[in-house]
Amino acid sequence: MPPGREAPRRKVTIFDVAEHAGVSIKTVSRVVNNEANVRDKTREKVLGVIRELQYKPNAAARELSGRRSRTIGLVYENAEEFNYTAAVLNGALGACEARGYSLLLCPLNLPNPAIGERVRDFATQARVEGIVLPAPVGDVAEVTGALQDMRIPFAAIAPRDPLPAEINIACKDEEATFSLTGYLVDQGHRCIGYIRGHPEHGASAKRFAGYRRALKKHGLAFAPGLVRQGYFDFDSGKTSAAELLDLPDPPTAIVAGNDDMAAGVLYEARKRGLSVPGQLSVVGFDDTRIASRMWPPLTTVRQPIMEMAETAARLLIDRLNGEAAEAPQEPFECEVVIRESSVPLT
Amino acid sequence: MPPGREAPRRKVTIFDVAEHAGVSIKTVSRVVNNEANVRDKTREKVLGVIRELQYKPNAAARELSGRRSRTIGLVYENAEEFNYTAAVLNGALGACEARGYSLLLCPLNLPNPAIGERVRDFATQARVEGIVLPAPVGDVAEVTGALQDMRIPFAAIAPRDPLPAEINIACKDEEATFSLTGYLVDQGHRCIGYIRGHPEHGASAKRFAGYRRALKKHGLAFAPGLVRQGYFDFDSGKTSAAELLDLPDPPTAIVAGNDDMAAGVLYEARKRGLSVPGQLSVVGFDDTRIASRMWPPLTTVRQPIMEMAETAARLLIDRLNGEAAEAPQEPFECEVVIRESSVPLT
DNA sequence: TTGTAGGCGTTATCAT
DNA sequence: ATGATAACGCCTACAA
């Protein structure tokens, strides 16, 4: 460490800064909080002293006095598969860092009767100003209800039922699955299975709708027998795939509602010695890490999860600071990513 | 919500409790903090009022006054593969919840010249009392140096160089890889490749040592040509596997330093049309989620990552509260998990 | 544009 | 065993 930049021996407070700068603490406070009514020259003087003394406002005092914790929470489902959550976490963390906020975590094990109480406790003890709710938590009424009760604003990522009073972040799930399914049809597939996502996730229904619309557009009959209910996890993908592959007339391609389930499909297919994509094409959704780490790597839909989470947290923080949320957020674009798990039907 | 349990209209403070209980605030404080010198009867009375009023101490005030934030930090390498970190996160979070602490996150992008400064800022702004350092951060001198400078205690998980003044959590890496390699030899493998882990991780050297010791014990010559340097991520596993498989005399089994690299090996092998385990046995280390989600599922070593992280955080918090850290923590046991990615050599 | 006084809810000190 | 009172460091209201 260069000389002259040692850590200060004792905590430097607003009084120290005021004294060194020859102003009152209020003026320092104004400068620190970027308030008006400070002469430019004074401001610079104070800023200089702050740098010189390495003054950092005491967050606890700030909170106690100003009732602002500069902390938001992330209430998420602590699912088996952490791929989605990891992306959300990174996004939210990024936004917090950029804005000088802290992020506190509240993992949930759904379903759980005491969810409302847990969220209430979390919000109280963690004293968060706002909360980010990645799917599916944004659709859990006990959670959203508790937060509205407590007047804690939140931002929901990919909710099924967007609450107009809150921030909602979406992406084009329906369109993307429509394209993805259309692509399979273009490859010659006529018998395409579908594994639905977790029923509590809003995205599940949207993606499924895209699948159906694609079938319709291409003049293919919708066959309920080719559809299975999954839960966005590896195991349900595996089980559903087993059922579909046991059909007398098994599908030549399977669309899974997300990558983790597609991984399960791949596992089951390979376990049976089926060649993918030779005998079965498999596609997923999300383009999480796992998608490109399987063999064959998955054709999937890239959803900008991290960016969505970053936006959710950013808009939330801006709103907490009274900064007008511009126009309602446009849904994010998704992109079909073609990899080796799918090929033209031969 | 049952009647009589509505959320209190306004914040209830220590004064409210004191008044209702007919005692002074200091007594309430004593009860809340489990201090001595309170008559049992008084204590119970106060406890009753606290429950009745649903009193929750204000954390900001507590911190401002008592200089204790009841917050610890998790400084981790924000690696591509989040499998290890997810387990650590869950473990640390569990310990924090159990002890009424909050956990703040500080992802690091290594290597990075400004690491020391970043950790310093984090510790200051997040005002953490202590920090958990999962591998490899516990071996980054800029980090540990900064923390020691600031007198912030920490707990390192799986460090190469345990610092005697701090808490260190280890597991039996060497023994486990010794067993794992021995198992492969028992299966008839004589030409066993090895992909080393990230050189900055302490575990890498230990695991490698176990491999060598196993070879020696079974009278197999150690061949440097069968060893590659990886970085604990998928890509380095893939690349290293490609090199090993291109050898004129390629190995019949590959030991990867962790599961993510083993996944890369699997990917590369399958890409080349090699049958696993028919033509190549592959084993990993960690038993993270990905291990059982590949086909074939990985033979690996189960390391109790979550438990180790939970222990690290728990011991750290106890130490912060002056509770004598009992005997130095014993290394955790590991367990070889045999799955379909390895079979007897035919 | 700048400064002063009071309070935020708790813990610490020192009496009693 | 219990209590009165002073910090803790900042922000808000109001005054100058």
Query: Can you count the helices of chain A?
Result: 12
Largest interface, Cβ cutoff 8 Å: A-B, 47 and 47 residues
Biggest sheet strand order of chain A reads 2-1-3-4-5
Spatial extent as radius of gyration of chain A: 25 Å
User: Distance N terminus to C terminus of chain A?
Assistant: 66 Å
Number of strands of chain A: 11
Quaternary status of these chains?
homodimer
Contiguous low-pLDDT stretches of chain A (5 residues minimum) are 1-9
Rough shape of chain A?
Answer: elongated
Mean pLDDT of chain A: 90
How do the SSEs of chain A run, as a string of H and E? HHHHEHEHEHEEHEHEHEHEEHE
Helical residue percent band of chain A: 40-55%
Structural class given helices, strands, pairing of chain A?
Answer: alpha/beta
